[in-house]
């Protein structure tokens, strides 16, 4: 893969919802933006960190806020240029490529829009290989890389630069500010070189996202063996198949929290409860956690093959609960300390689902 | 007055509590810091904006947070230099003098500490001539001057730069961040020239604070006619003299809120209720607002002559409720819209107390 073209957008968006694990917002608006950007600027060059000047500065970018707000008030395009130019000015250096911070939800597509508009390539990598609700939850934090300097801007023209002593403080300050910015802003953090990216990022994750999307589309098109092929590629499993019996949603402290309850299609006595904090965090059955962060929980409609964001969930939907292993680095003691169940307030020990460990 | 010496500190602190109208924290720690700074660096030169290069950049500085937290975790000195140097770097200019943002509470003394440490003069001016709980409540906002760029730092080494589209948004973002910084930080905002200061600031307010303090000390020393002299200088009046019958305090949304209830010493049926949001905002008697922001409400112990911060209030204290007029610019329709009772959520019309109007 050397370019993202118009033909890739739909597949990329499908993969983005899978890796979004419910969060990151519906990529619908991001798809339109990316389509417009590619029609205007041409296909977006995608590069491997290994093929770039090792000392070259990468420009990481992400949207931050509540997925529901992001869908309603999508960035107008100027914010990303503002945060990245401000970052370059602050560092006194010019970036050579855009780097996705988060590969999941709209943040899988948004950096490609930014790359198209800035005339830069986009690196085939990110710092999570999934969506996480907090910006310190990155492989870069695990590698001891500071998220600072961080820059942030909203559509109204407000701009903030942060230099924090640790990445959790960066998360706290960004989260506080985005709550004042109408729950949607564009940010940059973890400005690194191509060499650091090659060593510490989830390299190849854009390709991974696209390949997942292609397999989901095959399911949607009803191709024989498509589900097996999808599960095999993701090392995933169908954990539960049920009907949405209840959805509870609330927005607190800048988070979209909620719980979705599924009743098993074949055995109505079996009930699965998926708890949400922007992303699907833990799936419980009979009080026992069956899958949990950092592993991925993705809900897919059994009839249409549509992977679901939390906002799309509705009573009566019949869904597969898909469990996918996170990258191995997330499953180390350090990775679990940063983004395991206890990092989200669950007093449960991490138990991996099948797949790489 | 051309220098602030060790002999001025006590009087300055007394005036600072009067202008603090209950807020801004007990200047005790600030007094010690200023004493140390003057002992180390010598008296602090105080200058009038009119005597400076009109195009010279002033470096405004203030502490921000909850008064209670400020008392416990006073800035270590490095924060102010950090925010002012960062401001200079951002603007690409070097400042010629330190400018107090708020003259009231610890923020009356803190800029003098900063000036001593940076080897710069301090301007005899501020942007309020009293304490206000929000940083957009300045004469500079009334003059259409942006508070941005704003810089902010805490004792741990966290640093933030803000560029906001209006000063209220600046307040909101700073307030959000200070809540994450343990409720205490140092900030700069409203970087202006000496000419702008001369035109729009409360010029002479440092002298005003010192002169008030001298008159309060005369009260404390029991000099004949001292109370009359103090009231006359401030155009103030004793509104009520009572005993503290009840104090209610709570910290919500980054504010120290509360209500102090006083029972009249001579007529126990008379009760005055002073409502607090960091500062004393409105004094009610029989449900009627007798004094209200932007006019000043200061409580002074009738036996000792000690002006009280809200943290010093205790059951049984016998206090004068002193009402002082704000600067005329605060009493205009624009001033009242920014810092009158309705700006603090009180559905009452501003009624001036005696004095200049």
**Unreliable residue runs of chain A:** none
Largest interface: A-B, 17 and 17 residues
Strand content of chain A: 25-35%
Mean of pLDDT of chain A:
94
What is the number of E strands of chain A?
18
Major beta sheet of chain A, specifics?
A: 8 strands, antiparallel
The largest beta-sheet of chain A arranges its strands as 15-14-13-12-11-18-16-17
What is the overall shape of chain A? Answer: globular
Q: In the CATH scheme, what's the topology name of the largest domain in chain A?
A: CV3147-like fold
At the fourth level of CATH, the homologous superfamily of the largest domain in chain A is: CV3147-like domain
Number of helices of chain A: 11
The assigned CATH architecture of the largest domain in chain A is 3-Layer(aba) Sandwich
In whole angstroms, the N-to-C terminal distance of chain A is 28 Å
**What is the highest CATH level, the class of the largest domain in chain A?**
Alpha Beta
**Helix residue percentage of chain A:** 25-40%
Secondary-structure-derived class of chain A:
alpha+beta
Total domain count of chain A: 2
Assembly classification: homodimer
Q: Name the helix and strand elements of chain A from N-terminus to C-terminus, one letter apiece.
A: EHHEEHHEHEEHEEHEHEHHEEEEEEEEH
Radius of gyration of chain A: 19 Å
Protein described:
With 357 residues, the first copy, chain A, is of the alpha+beta class. The first copy, chain A, has 2 domains: 3-205, CV3147-like fold; 236-342, Beta Barrel (CV3147-like), CATH 2.40.390. Chain A is built from 11 helices and 18 strands. Chain A has an 8-stranded antiparallel β-sheet with strand order 15-14-13-12-11-18-16-17. Chain A has a 5-stranded mixed β-sheet with strand order 4-3-9-7-8. Chain A has a 3-stranded mixed β-sheet with strand order 1-2-5. In chain A, a hairpin with a 2-residue loop joins strand 14 (279-285) and strand 15. In chain A, helix 1 (9-20) crosses helix 5 and helix 1 packs across helix 9. The mean pLDDT of chain A is 94.
